[in-house]
TrEMBL record:
<dbReference type="GO" id="GO:0004830">
    <property type="term" value="F:tryptophan-tRNA ligase activity"/>
</dbReference>
<feature type="binding site">
    <location>
        <begin position="147"/>
        <end position="149"/>
    </location>
    <ligand>
        <name>ATP</name>
    </ligand>
</feature>
<keyword id="KW-0030">Aminoacyl-tRNA synthetase</keyword>
<dbReference type="InterPro" id="IPR001412">
    <property type="entry name" value="aa-tRNA-synth_I_CS"/>
</dbReference>
<feature type="binding site">
    <location>
        <position position="186"/>
    </location>
    <ligand>
        <name>ATP</name>
    </ligand>
</feature>
<comment type="subunit">
    <text>Homodimer.</text>
</comment>
<dbReference type="GO" id="GO:0005524">
    <property type="term" value="F:ATP binding"/>
</dbReference>
<feature type="binding site">
    <location>
        <begin position="195"/>
        <end position="199"/>
    </location>
    <ligand>
        <name>ATP</name>
    </ligand>
</feature>
<dbReference type="Pfam" id="PF00579">
    <property type="entry name" value="tRNA-synt_1b"/>
</dbReference>
<feature type="short sequence motif" description="'KMSKS' region">
    <location>
        <begin position="195"/>
        <end position="199"/>
    </location>
</feature>
<dbReference type="InterPro" id="IPR014729">
    <property type="entry name" value="Rossmann-like_a/b/a_fold"/>
</dbReference>
<dbReference type="InterPro" id="IPR024109">
    <property type="entry name" value="Trp-tRNA-ligase_bac-type"/>
</dbReference>
<feature type="binding site">
    <location>
        <begin position="18"/>
        <end position="19"/>
    </location>
    <ligand>
        <name>ATP</name>
    </ligand>
</feature>
<keyword id="KW-0547">Nucleotide-binding</keyword>
<dbReference type="InterPro" id="IPR002306">
    <property type="entry name" value="Trp-tRNA-ligase"/>
</dbReference>
<dbReference type="GO" id="GO:0005829">
    <property type="term" value="C:cytosol"/>
</dbReference>
<keyword id="KW-0963">Cytoplasm</keyword>
């Protein structure tokens, strides 16, 4: 079976629909076809400033949500990044073969740094994509299921794998991004020209899986739509309606063409009302299951402990090989 690795940051009290449709939904599918490793990347979550108590809580909420949307610890390895010290260890080695200019060209870093300002921008935020490369390469992943916003980081990962292998001998598998075109970028409901995002979206622009479903329904109904009245899929001229169609199609497993046919001659209001209902029915069981997992933190911690052990069995082998190849003495 090909190997996959992906991660999600515990930086909010809930995942949003973009996280789910762009990435996590594919994780669930791939656990049945791949040797899958998924992690809650808490090391990444401290790059922008955080509160320790909130972080701890969000790490548990993230793991609970991943189980609630369908990850099965019998089918995949689910773990918390900080439980596996090899991530930080390999991150250091990779940072020593990454150019300063190369890391500085990462668009996500530039965006976040420009918003935070120089005094609040950490070195951790700068080296974030290098740690991400370590996450992936440690597991010798063949594929990395992510949203479109991660494509550049994946390119860096590939460059680093290639460079390391060329300089120090074959050590890492070359990973490929696994990006499903239809849902690679879910847009903000209030500004459908930007991606739905924890940090950049306004509260009405983002659907959180764990928020009150009535609130989600309201947000769908007040989503910005476009001029004209026809329901058409046209990303350029009708980004708002197109985004709603993408979400609708993904949640119902229907083709966009089928939806266009069903809504021919009908208005935006009908589309929004129906999508709101679909969404409410979709999130309700996820919320119930998340609550069940959170109500039993001992069991959740056990799942994560087993996951960390399985993850270490793989990552320790890769790290040892990388250390050896880079020239570190083996401990006697
Ligand atoms: N809008 C999106 N559409 C499709 N995929 C998305 N992802 C994030 N936003 C969208 C994918 O979700 C996965 C987890 O991402 P993350 O943990 O890195 O989350 P994030 O980047 O912190 O999420 P945000 O909302 O994008 O946060 P900010 O605004 O802080 O950058 C990834 O695979 C990502 O591609």
């Amino acid at each position: 079976r090909p190997r996959v690795l992906s991660g999600i940051q515990p930086t909010a009290d809930s995942f949003h629909l973009g996280n789910y449709l762009g990435a996590v939904r594919n994780w669930v599918a791939m656990q049945h076809t791949h040797d899958a490793f998924y992690c809650v990347v808490d090391l990444h979550a401290i790059t922008m400033g955080h509160d320790p108590k909130i972080l701890r809580n969000r790490s548990r909420i993230s793991a609970a949500q991943l189980l609630a949307v369908g990850l099965d610890p019998e089918q995949c390895t689910l773990f918390v990044q900080s439980h596996v010290p090899e991530h930080a260890q390999l991150g250091w080695v990779l940072s020593c073969i990454t150019g300063f200019g190369e890391a500085g060209r990462m668009v996500q870093f530039k965006d976040k740094a420009s918003k935070a300002g120089q005094d609040s921008t950490t070195v951790g935020l700068f080296s974030y994509p290098i740690l991400q490369a370590a996450d992936i390469l440690l597991y010798q992943a063949d594929q990395v299921p992510v949203g479109e916003d991660q494509r550049q980081h994946l390119e860096l990962t590939r460059d680093l794998a290639q460079r390391f292998n060329t300089r120090f001998g074959k050590t890492f598998t070359m990973p490929s991004p696994y990006i499903v075109k239809d849902t690679a970028k879910i847009f903000d409901l209030q500004d459908p020209t930007i991606k739905m995002s924890k940090s950049a979206s306004s509260p009405n622009g983002i659907i959180e899986l764990l928020e009150d479903p009535a609130r989600s329904a309201k947000k769908i109904k007040s989503a910005v739509t476009d001029t004209g009245r026809d329901i058409l899929y046209d990303e350029e001229n009708k980004p708002g309606v197109s985004n709603l169609l993408t979400i609708y199609a993904a949640l119902t497993n229907r083709a966009i063409d089928e939806l266009l046919e069903a809504y021919e001659g009908r208005g935006y209001g009908d589309l929004k009302k129906d999508l709101a209902e679909v969404l409410v029915e979709f999130v309700k069981p996820i919320q119930e299951r998340t609550k069940l997992y959170l109500d039993d933190p001992a069991q959740l911690d056990k799942v994560l402990a087993v996951g960390a052990e399985k993850a270490r069995a793989v990552s320790a082998v890769t790290l040892a090989r990388a250390y050896r190849n880079v020239g570190f003495l083996s401990p006697a």
